[in-house]
Amino acid sequence: MKIDTSLTMPQLPEAMSQAGLQFTVATEEDFDEIMAMSQDIYGGLDYLPTRYTSWLQETNRTVILARKQGKVIALESVCVIDDGETMLVEGLRVAPQERGKGVAGVLLRFCSEMVKSKYPEVKVSRLTRDDQLGPKDFQKYRIITKQGILLVRFRAEDLNFRLTELGLVGNTSSSDCPPVLLDHTTIHRLYLTTDLMQGVLPNATIIQDWQPFKLLPSNMVILLKKDIDWMVDDVSNPTVASLCTFPFRVPIGDDWYYLNIDMFGKDLDLVRQQFLCHLQSHTTPLKGHVMCQMFLDPLLWKPMAEFCHNTLGVELVKEYTEQCVVESDVI
Ligand SMILES: CC(C)(COP(=O)(O)OP(=O)(O)OC[C@H]1O[C@@H](n2cnc3c(N)ncnc32)[C@H](O)[C@@H]1OP(=O)(O)O)[C@@H](O)C(=O)NCCC(=O)NCCS
């Protein structure tokens, strides 16, 4: 049976109908067309090829396509989180030949209208950007929090050799108190039943692989379904916490993996320890190239970049950039 996935909005703002765009809910069959217009985005680190199928199955998510004369020219995903109060915008992309014409703006407004009619309790829209925000963006958005982005690349085999040389393999930490990998019960207790994480997380927000979550049980249900290693330095009094998303393949080339580490807290030694633990446990089984992106307190970017380059001998891919979680009211 063919499912009708076309979307009609009774009261589309004028600009949308003028743009001559049609909007549909994405299906498995659209995958190739979407990938064709997604070449080279996010510097080859596009997560969509890996996430697409599971995105389509998530009950709180809708993936919307904009089409022009039937052809897919843009995509955006909206996911309702934070007990239904937040719509999270992700995956936004416009086909290269259609950029600069206002398509993203029209699609964003369409998705906002759709979410408002489907989830009337949604109050804010959140998204995470890594580009330079301009004055117009500051009029539109409130900044929730910022993290520095440290992007390094290496061959997994070379890094494993280097970690062994440094005596770091099998010896996760030279300190007496190695970081603790958390089980689900401890994560739940630490993040939801105590206020211990409030001082560690930026603006009390868990940012996992670009997604900002408030500290709420409903969000924890979403997070605990994912393959993530959760770590803290000390379960009774955490200073640094981290979430390492299991590595996945990215389109930059064959045998290229993306490793995402979200790091919270300001203590350089503890950050270094947790970073090394995640690298050790996730790069040892890999063969091939790794793009490792760590999001961390902006003040720790420089010393961690120096550590990566000077001690680990890995290549810094780009200079300092920021991951910015922004929010606007849904009106
Ligand atoms: C970023 C991109 C989607 C912009 O598309 P576009 O159609 O050229 O953008 P527009 O002409 O509609 O103009 C910009 C509008 O999109 C919004 N926009 C631009 N970049 C954005 C971003 N990264 N995230 C969310 N909104 C963005 C602007 O705020 C503006 O909205 P407004 O009309 O309400 O003012 C497009 O260049 C693209 O696909 N780039 C590659 C993928 C990418 O970097 N995506 C961003 C993910 S964070």
CATH architecture of the largest domain: 3-Layer(aba) Sandwich
| Count of distinct strands | 15
What share of the residues does DSSP label as strand, in percent?
Answer: 25-35%
Give, in order, the helices and strands: HEHHEEEHEHEHEHEEHEEEHEHEE
- Helix tally equals 10
How many domains would you count in the coordinates?
A: 2
- Look at the structure and give the CATH class of the largest domain: Alpha Beta
Cα distance spanning the termini: 37 Å
Helix amount, in percent?
25-40%
The helix/strand class is: alpha+beta
Shape verdict: globular
Ligand catalogue: coenzyme A
**Poorly predicted ranges:** none
- Computed CA radius of gyration, to the nearest angstrom: 21 Å
Kindly report the CATH topology of the largest domain: Aminopeptidase
Catalytic activity: L-histidine + acetyl-CoA = N(alpha)-acetyl-L-histidine + CoA + H(+)
Domain N-acetyltransferase: 21-156
Protein name: Histidine N-acetyltransferase
Organism: Pleuronectes platessa
Give a verbal description of the structure.
This protein is of the alpha+beta class. It folds into two domains: 14-122, Aminopeptidase (3-Layer(aba) Sandwich), CATH 3.40.630.30; 145-326, Aminopeptidase. It is 29% helix and 31% strand. It is built from ten helices and 15 strands. The strands form two sheets. Strands 1, 2, 3, 4, 5, 6, 7, 10, 11, 12, 13, 14 and 15 form a 13-stranded mixed sheet that branches. A two-stranded antiparallel ribbon has the order 8-9. A hairpin with a 2-residue loop joins strand 8 and strand 9 (211-214). The longest helix is centred in the middle third of the chain and has 16 residues, at 103-118. The chain binds coenzyme A (COA). Coenzyme A (COA) is lined by residues 41, 92-94, 99-105, 127, 129, 131, 137.
